[in-house]
Amino acid sequence: MELKGKTAIVTGSARGIGEGIALVLAREGANVVVNSRKVKDCEVVVQKIVSSGGKAIAIGGDVSEKADVVAMVSETIKQLGAVDILVNNAGIEGTPCLTKDLSEEQWDRVLGVNLKGVFFCCQAVIPQMMKQGQGRIVNIASTAAVRMTFFGSLEYTVSKHGVAGLSHHLAWELADSHITVNTVCPGGVQTPLMEAGTTPEYREMTIKRLIPLGRFTTMEEIGEAVSFLASDRAATITGQMLAVDGGLLTGFGEDLRAVVRTRMESMKAGAH
Ligand SMILES: NC(=O)c1ccc[n+]([C@@H]2O[C@H](COP(=O)([O-])OP(=O)(O)OC[C@H]3O[C@@H](n4cnc5c(N)ncnc54)[C@H](O)[C@@H]3O)[C@@H](O)[C@H]2O)c1
Fold first, then answer.
1. What is the pLDDT of residue 123?
2. Which atom of ligand 1 is nearest to the CA of 196?
3. Which pLDDT score is estimated for 261?
4. Which of 119, 150, 151, 156 is catalytic?
5. d(CA 225, CA 148)
6. Which helix (H) or strand (E) segment is 87 a member of?
7. Could you tell me if the CB of 91 is within 6 A of ligand 1?
8. Beta bridge partners of 56
9. Cα atoms in the Cβ-side hemisphere of radius 13 Å centred on 203
């Protein structure tokens, strides 16, 4: 129970990775704000936490709307008295298409939630964390924060690179206020977002070709990484990016592995 008594806001936590994070933080003793655009969508996760002995409340609000974010943070302070941990998880998928076919509306929609939403949430909690003399911000980016997304959408990749940049800047800016800012980069996690955007064949191919450990990460495994970064064990870790991706960023899925093995075998055979 290393987060006992801490208050954590987890954006977009009515399902998927956000739900996994909310459940793990609650298991570790945090009082959790479950957020999604519609408050009623949050109730199932709140009930799961409460029925296993934890504390959680539901606060609706769209992270891409500044007024909603400000209201969410002030409601959190009103009901729970503090904001110790902010997890910026809410995010949406982009459109897999060529850049020449991408509309301005599609660009604005994804950047609005995935990047501007993170900015609004950070901006809203910083004064409170400063008042408290410490804080933890964990941003959920993606392996698309350092490479392109295997979903093939430009604006998604750009939004996640932006989250990495925002995290680096804020880690520096907030260090003397004892607020750490880190980024978790999931690779593939089988969530409603992933299922809506892919076929089972595509998911199987992704695992086989891109993920050395041979499976997607679970939502709870992302929660474990977030929980660590939010804990006292990570007190001097800031400005870091932690890939929780089954090895995806090593680049050694099946195809690359075959290339590397061929090279090793030819070296052994004295071909070079
Ligand atoms: N699933 C993956 O494989 C994967 C991989 C890398 C990164 N991610 C990132 O992880 C995060 C969560 O993804 P997921 O797969 O769990 O998605 P999901 O669609 O399953 O869940 C996202 C949640 O966020 C909420 N949400 C969406 N827009 C919102 C908004 N404007 N305001 C408030 N809530 C909003 C949704 O209602 C939903 O509850 C996203 O930032 C995503 O980019 C996911």
1. 98
2. 19
3. 82
4. 156
5. 22
6. strand 85-88
7. yes
8. 32
9. 16
Tell me if 1 is assigned to some domain: no
- Considering its fold, how many domains does the chain have in total? 1
191 lines ligand 1 (CB under 6 A): yes
pTM attached to this predicted model: 0.95
Residue 2 lies in a domain: no
Note the pLDDT tens digit of each residue in 198-210.
889 989 998 988 9
pLDDT the model gives residue 272 = 64
Q: 33: phi > 0 → left, psi -120 to 50 → alpha, else beta; which?
A: beta
Cβ–Cβ < 8 Å for 160, 142: yes
Q: Calculate how far, in angstroms, residue 12's C-alpha sits from the geometric centre of ligand 1.
A: 6
Residue 122's domain spans which residues?
7-268
Whether 202 sits among the annotated catalytic residues: the reply is no
At what angle are helices 117-132 and 154-174 packed, to 10 degrees?
20
The ranges of the chain with pLDDT < 70 are 272
Length of the chain: 272
Of 9, 123, 23, 140, nearest in space to 76 by CA: 9
Q: From ligand 1's centre to the CA of 264, what distance in Å?
A: 41
User: Is 44 among the domain residues?
Assistant: yes
**Cβ(253)–Cβ(209) below 8 Å:** yes
